[in-house]
Amino acid sequence: MPQARYFELPITEVIKRRSSTRSYNPVQLPDEVLEKLKAYSREIRGPFSGRVRLVFLDVSAFEEQTGKKIGTYGFIRGAQHFIAGIVAKGEKDLEELGYVFEQLILYATSLGLGTCWLGGTFRRKSLQEAVALKKTEMLPAITPVGYAARKEKMLDMGISGILSREKRLTKRPSGPGPSIVGQRKPKRKPWPELFFYQRLGYPLPKNEAGDFQAPLEMVRLAPSASNRQPWRVIKSEDCWHFYLEPSLLTNKVLGFEIQRIDLGIALCHFELTARELGLPGNWIVLTTGLPSLGAEKLQYVASWRLSP
Q1: pLDDT at res. 8
Q2: Pairing relation of β-strands 299-305 and 282-284?
Q3: Cross-strand partners of 83
Q4: How far is the C-alpha of 233 from the C-alpha of 53, rounded, in Å?
Q5: pLDDT in tens, 101-124
Q6: Could you tell me the CATH superfamily of domain 3-305?
Q7: Is the distance from CB of 137 to CB of 88 less than 8 angstroms?
Q8: What is the DSSP letter of 135?
Q9: Would you kindly state where each structural domain of the chain is located, as residue ranges?
């Protein structure tokens, strides 16, 4: 867990500052900033056994070498650098990718850089050769990285309006369409809809969360595809159990369950905050002995088990 050596701000402050930046100052990042990002990326380890590769792409070099652009369907403007998140196919692969990639995004945020999770609004084919994608790997997400442009707010308001209208009008997925993981400062579900005690449907009062109130609040603030916030957390005995609430709006046309990435992001926020606060525990995946918590219709992901 490398954040203690790199982050100069409390992780809770970094999480609150992170937002989706879609318009960038079209300048190259200084070499020292890129090197900081790359050095940090090499130290990140996720909670599972998935193998994640984070590939840094220079837009000018990419266009010169391939004769193509990094297509984002007009959602991103001015960015001169992108980072591709690649993961080897396997169990908990997308959760691992979400965790690792979000940790790098938070570090970029701490450096004053803008980012934007892109899960369905980029052209994968133009990137697969550049990142040497293997048949055993997936390229589920990318992010631009750079300094936000002054006109960012106006552009963001327009795109957020489009996404909001799309969310109201769409009842079932009809195509690849816009799929941005996290909008800029969107509304979040209230605490009682996300966190439960002993059984789903029994909201966990904030004052009953104890020292874990801050980690859970950082989960609540995490970005997610179309701001669905698909995580549900149930406290039982010595564990915090994380579940995924499936949605009919999950864009299966992409070929992967994008909401599993959201769960990885939530796990990242929870653990980084818990570690910074000195709260003991570790991730486990219960294959047997999972208590009956009234969550049979949800998908179990992992549990944070408290340690003495």
Answers
A1: 87
A2: antiparallel
A3: 56, 143
A4: 28
A5: 999 999 999 999 999 999 988 888
A6: NADH Oxidase (3.40.109.10)
A7: yes
A8: T
A9: 3-305
